[in-house]
Specification:
Nucleotidyltransferase, domain 5, single chain, alpha/beta, 44% helix, 7 helices, six-stranded mixed β-sheet
Length: 226
């Protein structure tokens, strides 16, 4: 049996207004808990090396804020890390809807669907923990947990050959203290470059780590998740 950690970050917004982003992208990084220390050390050591050998100073790896020289150094170590990554996205250029329940949609994209991906691609899972960058109030976190509990039955129906669905727990942490969340931020940025800017140079470096990419634009309309 295996425990899985899924680190989540997103790029873009869920709005459908003129100034809204054209894509909403959720990136995930799947990690075995036994590998967290190794990954953390690799990123921490790189951070220290950059501070020691350059004049660039930053608190954490953040795709949108880091200098290109910093970006490429982190991106180049991703293929060597014991992780699998991927994305879930909505292409808002293809649809125009009036979003009435953004929290419901956000929870579906950042909690339910990553859990679905883990169950689809991994066997003998004992527990799934989904770690999301802390951007919710305590009330919203409780609502997200309640939402997931309601969706467990649906996951069980999707995987009817399984005897049980493992415990699935969402957690909210500060990315400054969790380097795997910083990786998820980078994956979201790389996928945004691919989808929005048709830029593949960073994507090609990490291509071997990509487990899946899902376009859920049509699904959110079909399922009424708006």
């Amino acid at each position: 049996m295996v425990n899985l950690l899924i680190f989540i970050d997103e790029s873009g917004d869920l709005g459908f207004k003129d100034k809204s982003t054209s894509y909403f992208i959720v990136a995930y990084v799947i990690v075995n808990p036994n590998d967290v220390y190794k990954i953390d050390k690799e990123i921490r050591d790189l951070h220290k090396e950059i501070h020691k050998t350059t004049k660039k100073r930053f608190d954490e790896f953040k795709y949108i804020k880091n200098h290109p020289d910093v970006k490429i150094r982190l991106i180049k170590i991703i293929p060597m890390l014991p992780i699998q990554v991927g994305g879930i996205y909505i292409n808002k250029n293809r649809t125009q809807i009036k979003l009435t329940n953004p929290i419901l949609l956000y929870d579906y994209l950042t909690i339910y669907y990553p859990a679905y991906i883990a169950l689809k691609y991994y066997n003998n899972i004992d527990k799934i923990t989904i770690i999301i960058d802390r951007n919710k109030t305590n009330k919203q976190q409780k609502e997200a947990e309640d939402y997931l509990n309601k969706k467990i039955e649906e996951l069980a129906d999707r995987f009817s050959l399984r005897t049980t669905i493992p415990p699935i727990m969402p957690m909210y942490k500060d990315s400054k203290n969790v380097r795997c969340l910083q990786l998820a931020d980078y994956i979201a940025g790389i996928l945004r470059e691919k989808y929005v800017n048709n830029r593949y140079d960073y994507y090609n470096i990490i291509r071997g780590k990509i487990l899946s990419e899902y376009d859920l634009t049509d699904s959110i309309i079909r399922l009424g998740l708006y």
